[in-house]
Amino acid sequence: MTEPLSADMFPDADCADRPMPFRVGGKWTGWVLRCLDDGPHRFTELRVALHWVTPKVLTETLRAMERDGFLTRTVHDENPPRVEYGLTVLGRSLIGPLDGACDWARRHAPEIAEARGAYRS
Fold first, then answer.
1. Contact, 84 vs 42, CB < 8 A?
2. Where in the numbering of this chain does the HTH hxlR-type domain appear (predicted)?
3. Which of 40, 68, 76, 87 has its CA 20 to 30 A from that of 9?
């Protein structure tokens, strides 16, 4: 039998002045990281690759990633204005773990599909 979980398991989790110990982002963060891996891109270019993501959700994702320090938003002084999004050093440091997670998912895809099928039954 396992030990009961302790209320002190995450002692600092309720401290509002500290970020969560590990938070990569929302549902689309990994996809955006992959899109920006080869260099900066404009919003419209990201929309082509991520065509199933609504513009509103993509904008929210980009803002959250900028807030968390994963990417930069560069406005070029042109007419019309050109805005590009690019990975920061912090954002780029997530590519390795993202690659590892993708490799794991590919290796275990049959097991995951089987578990999902069994769950639906």
1. yes
2. 15-113
3. 68
